[in-house]
Amino acid sequence: MFLHVREAKYVRDYTIWLRFNDGAEGEIDLLGELEGEMFAPLKDKNLFKKFLVDPDIETIVWENGADLAPEFLYKNMKVLV
After folding, report:
1. How many CA atoms lie within 13 A of 54 on its CB side?
2. Using one digit for the tens of pLDDT, what is the confidence trace for 30-47?
């Protein structure tokens, strides 16, 4: 099964809530991932909060072109029970 992000909402700080096409949902703290040319600018919370779910690639993306693979997000999210 291919994983796709269906919904995403800002929670707090650098944490995002996600729901996937298989129904799994959870939160992921991305602070530790905000390194390098594409991701370091997202340490500015005002920029970080401006993500959206891209309907074409079905994952979260930011205005500067940064995105994260849905498989990475799924593997690293804390599942909510």
Report:
1. 14
2. 999 999 999 999 999 999
Count up the domains in the chain and report the number.
Answer: 1
Note down pLDDT in tens along the chain; length 81 residues.
Answer: 799 999 999 999 999 999 999 999 999 999 999 999 999 999 999 999 999 999 999 999 999 999 999 999 999 999 976
H or E stretch including 75? helix 70-76
Helix (H), strand (E) counts: the chain:
3, 6
52: domain CATH number is 3.30.2020.10
Phi and psi angles of residue 20, each rounded to the nearest 5 degrees, phi first: -105, 165
Domain of 25?
Answer: 5-79
The neighbour count for residue 13, using CB atoms within 10 Å, is 11
Q: Are 8 and 25 in contact (CB under 8 A)?
A: no
